[in-house]
Design brief:
Layout lengths: L1 H37 L10 E2 L1 E4 L9 E9 L2 E5 L4 E6 L6 E2 L4 E5 L2 H37 L4 H34 L1 E3 L4 E6 L6 E2 L4 E7 L3 E8 L3 H5 L3 E6 L6 E9 L9 E8 L11 E7 L7 E4 L4 E3 L2 E8 L2 E6 L1 E6 L2 E6 L6 E5 L10 E2 L6
Parallel strand pairs: 1-24
Antiparallel strand pairs: 2-23, 3-12, 3-16, 4-11, 5-7, 5-10, 6-9, 7-8, 9-11, 12-15, 13-14, 13-16, 14-15, 17-22, 18-19, 19-20, 19-23, 21-22
Helix pairs in contact: 2-3
């Protein structure tokens, strides 16, 4: 019986091992097929990138520079009292029209009047002394002629007369000086014009020479601007200067450089420049805000592109030029930039299409899908 059991289990083991071998073979065959499929070369697929582009427009003239300024008078008089004192009267307001000789302000002249009165009394005293000296001189001249007195005595009275005469002159000069100071208590306009500034009020005590009123004389009008030092030469060579006004949007006046300050302002480090207005209309008033634009008529034509279109490769600025849906990197010559745009002086032609966004994600010769407007 044991022998029969051995015979029945042996074929089962062979069958089991056969099935395992067959399964292993199938696995190896399947893996080979998968590996062969994965190692087959794939067809190259090129990605098409959607980019924003723009067509370069026609070239224009170079962008000029604009400076803000204020309308001023050609001649401005800063008036001050020649004597100090307390202001007791003010006869003008800002914008008042004045004529030559008009009294603008007056200071208290009580002390000056007392000085004038004292000087006047000294004049009377000196004149009285002069009369006495002259009488003595005439009397002793007669005595000298008769030989009653010596020449030395006569010379003493002659000298006394000369001293009295000098005293009269001195007293008269002091009186004239006091009279002038009394007249200086009135601040008068030296030229006809318009009151543009008042820096003192009634009741204020001012010193001699302290500016209290500014009068802009009638005549030429000009605009004062501040220019940085690196733009001075450009201003000197400007072919055309246009002046516009914030309050008068439809008015534009030609201008010319009249004066450039020889030194820069210590605070702003800019140079004061005066621009004369040529044939200004009467609507232009003092103190108006003006914009002075410089345009160089001899400048070479340039075109502007968005600043985002520039691809900086080392020290050379470049742009992506699109042709037949392929991009090519091209170097350009740039100029000044501002307000999100940069001037291109060379390297591009009118009508060429360039990439204006995403320039750092492109590669040379890459195929793109374009879209955008003209510049």
């Amino acid at each position: 019986m044991k022998q029969l059991n051995f015979l029945t289990t042996k074929p089962n083991k062979k069958l089991y091992y056969g099935l395992i071998a067959a399964g292993l073979g199938l696995c190896v065959a399947g893996g080979s097929l998968v590996w062969a499929k994965q190692t087959e070369p794939k067809a190259a697929v090129q990605d098409v990138v959607m980019v924003r582009t723009a067509v370069v427009g026609a070239a224009g003239t170079a962008q000029g520079y604009t400076y803000s300024g204020e309308v001023r008078g050609r001649f401005e008089s800063q008036l001050a009292f020649q004597v100090g004192g307390k202001i007791i009267k003010r006869n003008v307001e800002l914008g008042s029209t004045v004529n030559a000789g008009d009294v603008l302000m007056q200071i208290d002249a009580k002390d000056i009047e007392q000085t004038v009165n004292s000087s006047s009394a000294q004049v009377y005293s000196a004149e009285s002394q002069l009369k006495l000296a002259q009488s003595n001189l005439n009397r002793y001249r007669q005595l000298l002629e008769t030989g009653a007195i010596s020449r030395a005595q006569y010379d003493q009275y002659a000298s006394s007369y000369e001293v009295a005469l000098a005293g009269v002159r001195q007293a008269s000069a002091q009186y004239a000086q006091g009279s002038n100071q009394l007249d200086y208590s009135l601040l008068r306009a030296d030229k006809p014009g318009v009151v543009a500034g008042i820096t003192a009020e009634r009741g204020q005590v001012v010193n001699a020479g302290q500016v209290v009123v500014t009068v802009v004389q009638d005549g030429e009008r000009e605009v004062e601007i501040s220019v940085p030092e690196n733009r001075i030469e450009e201003l000197r060579k400007a072919g055309q200067i246009k002046v516009s006004f914030w309050a008068l949007p439809n008015v534009a006046v030609d201008g010319k450089v009249r004066e450039i300050a020889p030194m820069a302002d210590q605070t702003t480090r800019t140079f004061k420049v005066r621009i004369s207005l040529l044939n200004p209309p009467p609507e232009i008033k003092l103190g108006m805000t003006a914009a002075v634009t410089l345009a160089d008529t001899g400048a070479q034509p340039v075109m502007s592109i968005p600043l985002a279109a520039v691809y900086q490769d080392g020290d050379t600025p470049k742009v992506w030029v699109v042709r037949d849906d392929l991009v090519t990197l091209r170097p350009i010559q740039t100029g000044s930039f501002g307000n999100g745009a940069i001037q291109v002086a060379g390297g591009l032609k009118t009508g060429e299409r360039i990439v204006v966004a995403g320039v750092h994600k492109l590669k040379e010769g890459q195929k793109v899908k374009t879209g955008g407007d003209s510049l």
